[in-house]
Amino acid sequence: MDTLTQVLRYIPVMKNDKLLVDMEAGDDTAVHMLNENTAVIHTLDFFTPIVDNPYNYGTISAADALIGIHARHIV
Contacts by 20-24 with C-beta closer than 8 Å and gap 24+? Predict the structure, then answer.
Protein backbone atom coordinates (compact mmCIF):
# COMPACT_ATOMS: atom_id res chain seq x y z
CA MET A 1 0.00 0.00 0.00
CA ASP A 2 1.47 3.36 -0.99
CA THR A 3 1.88 6.28 1.41
CA LEU A 4 -0.96 8.35 -0.04
CA THR A 5 -3.42 5.48 0.38
CA GLN A 6 -2.30 4.97 3.98
CA VAL A 7 -2.82 8.63 4.84
CA LEU A 8 -6.16 8.95 3.04
CA ARG A 9 -7.63 6.06 5.04
CA TYR A 10 -7.92 8.41 8.03
CA ILE A 11 -9.46 11.38 6.22
CA PRO A 12 -13.24 11.35 5.82
CA VAL A 13 -14.49 11.79 2.26
CA MET A 14 -16.82 14.78 1.96
CA LYS A 15 -19.42 14.47 -0.78
CA ASN A 16 -20.06 17.45 -3.01
CA ASP A 17 -22.05 17.30 -6.24
CA LYS A 18 -19.79 19.95 -7.78
CA LEU A 19 -16.66 17.81 -7.43
CA LEU A 20 -16.02 15.92 -10.66
CA VAL A 21 -12.74 14.38 -9.42
CA ASP A 22 -12.18 13.92 -5.70
CA MET A 23 -10.14 11.88 -3.21
CA GLU A 24 -12.00 8.69 -4.06
CA ALA A 25 -10.21 8.68 -7.41
CA GLY A 26 -6.94 8.16 -5.52
CA ASP A 27 -5.43 10.99 -7.48
CA ASP A 28 -3.57 14.18 -6.64
CA THR A 29 -6.01 16.24 -8.70
CA ALA A 30 -9.46 17.63 -7.91
CA VAL A 31 -11.90 19.24 -10.33
CA HIS A 32 -14.57 21.53 -8.90
CA MET A 33 -17.39 22.92 -11.07
CA LEU A 34 -18.03 26.63 -10.45
CA ASN A 35 -20.94 26.75 -12.90
CA GLU A 36 -22.06 24.77 -15.94
CA ASN A 37 -19.28 26.23 -18.11
CA THR A 38 -16.37 26.73 -15.70
CA ALA A 39 -14.36 24.35 -13.55
CA VAL A 40 -11.34 24.85 -11.30
CA ILE A 41 -8.58 22.27 -11.39
CA HIS A 42 -6.50 21.72 -8.25
CA THR A 43 -3.40 19.58 -8.44
CA LEU A 44 -0.69 18.80 -5.95
CA ASP A 45 2.81 17.58 -6.60
CA PHE A 46 6.07 17.69 -4.71
CA PHE A 47 9.63 17.25 -5.82
CA THR A 48 12.89 18.63 -4.53
CA PRO A 49 14.43 21.59 -6.35
CA ILE A 50 16.54 20.43 -9.27
CA VAL A 51 17.90 23.88 -10.14
CA ASP A 52 19.14 26.79 -8.02
CA ASN A 53 17.36 29.57 -9.90
CA PRO A 54 13.83 30.20 -8.44
CA TYR A 55 12.45 31.37 -11.80
CA ASN A 56 13.64 28.23 -13.57
CA TYR A 57 12.29 26.07 -10.75
CA GLY A 58 8.90 27.79 -11.06
CA THR A 59 8.89 27.22 -14.81
CA ILE A 60 9.68 23.53 -14.35
CA SER A 61 7.00 23.22 -11.64
CA ALA A 62 4.36 24.88 -13.82
CA ALA A 63 5.22 22.63 -16.76
CA ASP A 64 5.03 19.57 -14.50
CA ALA A 65 1.57 20.58 -13.24
CA LEU A 66 0.26 21.17 -16.77
CA ILE A 67 1.65 17.84 -17.97
CA GLY A 68 -0.15 16.08 -15.11
CA ILE A 69 -3.44 17.78 -15.93
CA HIS A 70 -3.08 17.01 -19.64
CA ALA A 71 -2.22 13.37 -18.90
CA ARG A 72 -5.51 13.03 -17.03
CA HIS A 73 -7.36 14.28 -20.15
CA ILE A 74 -8.86 17.14 -18.14
CA VAL A 75 -7.97 19.80 -20.70
Answer: 21/72, 21/74
